[in-house]
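User: Could you go from structure to sequence for me? I need the amino acid at each position, not a summary. Structure tokens:
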């Protein structure tokens, strides 16, 4: 018997069915070792030796693997086919060597791009050894990320209080977001006018034509700058005669896009399905690892962390066969299509993301998938099958028109397109096609060259130029990929880190840099500019890829990087805080000193009139204060508009005055505390305080919202059965309603202010029904069933007295704060259960021993 090691239990379960009794498939649950989150885990002075740590949950799993290997004939490492997968196999092998579990056992490495029976069995027939250059590239990347994070972050903490951390890729991604925000702030709108004529043919068919030239001069977008100019041209056209100078119908073709890579899948899922990058990868992971299709378990898509765009020859053949069956032979090109990658640093040996079986149409598997899985699978299937279909054939018609009014002339153009053959569009339209659909469906009537046209109407419309849009997750991922920064597997984690660190906020799917994020970026651009340069980071990525190709030694790359980086960090130790603040004042001038409505100098204190405003660094971050402190106590939060009166800021520690309570006349302020922003009424121990609920930012809090928060809890009404009051409030676990000791969660803070008596009674009743079993000494009803544990027994998500948790047999593991119970995956649940079981010392928590009676001891008194 051979032991096979994979990452996840879901993958293990599927593969075990394919391999049979002669194999035992065990899961490592991802990485089994990591660098401890403390200084000294990577030692540059000891030739970059690395200290790896194994947590208690991984220790137990490694012990199980070691025990199984000792009784086996050999070990087969079957982790994912990328750098991370190779690293996991290497870690497992290193630990087993340390445990002396291998002895003379045969060790082999196998990889498969899809979890199907044929792919797995073919991989088992072609084993190889651990790819050392791929492991070296992982080690170099891990060491670099660690050294940047654990060297740069302490500099931030010392010189920029309130900053959380910096990272090699994270900081560059944040810079992109902040640079775009600075572009938007600097943007000056320009007025321009468009002129469109509504014309008719002699056959009374109407169409639109846009002005393209006037008095022999070609017009650019911004050439008509004001109403006076537009009205002059409009008057000329209203008295003009029109004639069709030329009519040209030109056939064009549009070819399909290649199948998805990791980044293009994340972009499409964001724009079409509204998924975050993190959610996309979670759903794709389940589709890859295997789904029960009515008795048969199979992976539905190939490995989803890839930057390759090519499909395997057998997959292309299968796609062509499916096209013929599903769409017809006229949609099938004469020869297969082949694609190449344009992105920097792409590893074309990796296959694109595609269905494992093209004859598993989205309709045929929908019944076995949840809603998100079905939608993502349909996206993957359609894009992959469209990539092998015929081009769309489009006829584009352009009509050039002349306008004459005496000796004055103008030229207009009318454009229309018609799809003559939809081709790949029958399966999939990408964003480019969707953006141009209106134009392609805008048919022109029959217009003949040389014929006179009748003026129906002339329209002149005012417009202004628009600033560049803020990045969305999709557009930021696209930009990072274009620049060659990061890898497909890192994008989702990078974006999540920026949000978790409160460096960016995602609002309507747009990334808005927060004050913390802009401060960090300005600091790094001022004092570590080289390390947040796009080209520098991309060049480092290229070196990492050269390591994986065996062209560079990984420690040479680390030595070159560390020599300059450590010297640069040492130089910053001499920096004074005043130097930092002076640099940030200039770098962030539009944010720190916003223009005032009265046109006065935004750098002069509005309270005392003589002091200069500047950034100040407090315990909880940065704020703007007056140079005449303590005589002048003017302060305001960073990013707050500076148009208020002299008393607008006026509080200590960067607190913001919001107004007075209309009943108590006490001051209401917005403050920043250890656990984030909060509002406060009054001063001292008796002051009423309320944290901001999830989704509310400090920038959005005004007097009205603060009053609403401080009024909680509020009485909803008396329960019709008990006559006891039901109240609504905001607690440790979020918004709730309370009746007679029973708490029931509400979906949002808005519900706290709007919920009526009838709904409150229903919510309380639902909670009491769910909790009936718990009150009788049983287990609360399951909110969600996740599946079977590898050791047997159901895994469920439940809601307990202290919040939601996952349950398996007698093990209860609390969910992390803020985790949506409905979004928990079985992999996350298994990790939580393993960690909880490890802490309790076994598979199930042991019963507590009865306490022995305490024995009295007498202690001698010391003189």
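Assistant: Here is the amino acid at each position, in order:
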């Amino acid at each position: 018997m051979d032991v096979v090691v994979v990452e996840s239990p879901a993958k293990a379960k599927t593969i075990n069915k394919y391999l049979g009794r002669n194999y035992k498939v065990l899961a490592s649950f991802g990485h089994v070792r990591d660098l401890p989150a403390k200084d000294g885990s990577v030692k540059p002075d000891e030739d970059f030796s690395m200290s790896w740590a194994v947590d208690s949950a991984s220790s137990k799993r490694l012990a199980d693997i070691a025990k199984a290997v000792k009784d086996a004939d050999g070990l087969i490492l079957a982790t994912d086919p990328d750098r991370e997968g190779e690293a996991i196999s290497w870690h497992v092998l290193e630990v087993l060597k340390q445990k002396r579990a291998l002895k003379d056992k045969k060790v082999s490495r196998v990889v498969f791009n899809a979890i199907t029976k044929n792919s797995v069995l073919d991989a088992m027939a072609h084993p190889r050894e651990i790819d050392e250059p791929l492991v070296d590239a992982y080690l170099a990347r891990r060491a670099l990320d660690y050294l940047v994070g654990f060297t740069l972050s302490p500099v931030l903490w010392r010189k920029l209080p309130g900053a959380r951390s910096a990272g090699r890729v994270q900081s560059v991604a944040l810079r992109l977001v902040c640079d775009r925000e600075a572009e938007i702030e600097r943007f000056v709108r320009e007025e321009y006018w468009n002129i469109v004529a509504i014309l008719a043919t002699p056959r009374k068919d109407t169409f639109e034509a846009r002005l393209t030239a006037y008095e022999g001069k070609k017009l650019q977008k911004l050439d008509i700058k004001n109403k006076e100019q537009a009205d002059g041209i409009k008057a000329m056209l209203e008295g003009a005669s029109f004639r069709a100078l030329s009519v040209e119908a030109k056939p064009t073709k549009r070819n399909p896009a290649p199948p998805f890579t990791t980044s293009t899948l994340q972009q499409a899922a964001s724009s079409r399905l509204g998924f975050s990058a993190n959610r996309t990868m979670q759903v794709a992971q389940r589709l890859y690892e295997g789904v029960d299709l009515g008795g048969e378990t199979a992976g539905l898509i190939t490995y989803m962390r890839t930057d390759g765009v090519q499909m395997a020859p057998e997959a292309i053949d299968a796609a062509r066969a499916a096209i013929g069956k599903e769409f017809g032979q006229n949609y099938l090109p004469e020869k297969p299509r082949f694609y190449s990658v344009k992105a920097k640093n792409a590893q074309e040996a990796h296959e694109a993301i595609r269905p494992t079986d093209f004859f598993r149409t989205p309709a045929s598997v929908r019944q076995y998938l949840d809603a998100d899985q079905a939608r993502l699978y349909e996206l993957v299937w359609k894009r992959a099958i469209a990539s092998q279909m015929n081009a769309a054939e489009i006829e584009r018609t352009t009509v050039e028109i002349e306008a004459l009014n005496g000796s004055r002339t103008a030229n207009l153009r009318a454009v229309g397109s018609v799809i003559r053959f939809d081709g790949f569009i029958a399966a999939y339209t990408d964003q480019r096609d969707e953006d141009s659909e209106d134009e392609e469906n805008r048919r022109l009537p029959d217009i003949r060259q040389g014929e006179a046209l009748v003026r129906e109407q002339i329209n002149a419309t005012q417009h202004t130029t628009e600033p560049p849009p803020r990045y969305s997750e999709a557009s930021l991922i696209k930009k990072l990929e274009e620049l060659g920064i990061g890898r497909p597997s890192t994008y989702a984690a990078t974006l999540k880190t920026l949000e978790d660190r409160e460096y960016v906020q995602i609002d309507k799917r747009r990334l808005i840099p927060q004050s913390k994020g802009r401060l960090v970026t300005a600091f790094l651009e001022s004092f570590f500019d080289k390390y947040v340069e796009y080209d520098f980071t991309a060049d480092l990525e290229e070196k990492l890829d050269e390591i994986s190709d065996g062209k560079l030694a990984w420690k040479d790359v680390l030595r070159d990087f560390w020599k300059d980086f450590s010297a640069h960090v040492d130089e910053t130790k001499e920096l004074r805080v005043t130097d930092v603040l002076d640099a940030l004042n200039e770098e962030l001038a539009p944010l720190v000193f916003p223009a005032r409505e009265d046109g006065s100098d935004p750098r002069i204190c509005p309270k005392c009139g003589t002091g200069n405003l500047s950034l100040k660094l407090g315990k909880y971050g940065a704020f703007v204060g007056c140079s005449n402190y303590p005589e002048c106590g003017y302060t305001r939060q960073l990013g707050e508009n500076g148009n208020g009166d002299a008393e607008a800021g006026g509080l200590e520690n960067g607190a913001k005055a919001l107004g007075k309570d209309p009943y108590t006349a006490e001051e209401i302020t917005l403050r920043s505390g250890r656990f984030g922003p909060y509002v406060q009424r009054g001063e001292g121990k008796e002051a009423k305080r309320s944290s901001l609920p999830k989704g509310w930012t400090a920038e959005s809090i005004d007097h009205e919202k603060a009053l609403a928060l401080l009024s909680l809890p509020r009485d909803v009404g008396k329960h019709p059965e008990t006559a006891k009051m039901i109240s609504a409030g905001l607690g440790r676990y979020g918004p709730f309603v309370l009746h007679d000791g029973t708490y029931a969660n509400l979906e949002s803070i808005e519900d706290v202010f709007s919920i009526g008596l009838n709904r409150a009674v229903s919510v309380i009743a639902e909670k009491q029904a769910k909790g009936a079993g718990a009150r009788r000494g049983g287990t609360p009803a399951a909110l969600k069933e996740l599946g079977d544990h590898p050791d047997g027994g159901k895994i469920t998500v439940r809601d307990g007295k202290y919040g939601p948790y996952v349950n398996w047999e007698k093990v209860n593991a609390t969910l992390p704060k803020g985790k949506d119970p409905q979004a928990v995956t079985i992999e996350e649940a298994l990790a939580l259960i393993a960690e909880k079981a490890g802490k309790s010392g076994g598979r199930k928590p042991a019963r507590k021993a009865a306490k022995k009676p305490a024995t009295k001891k007498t202690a001698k008194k010391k003189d």
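One structural detail worth keeping in mind: The longest strand covers residues 241-254.
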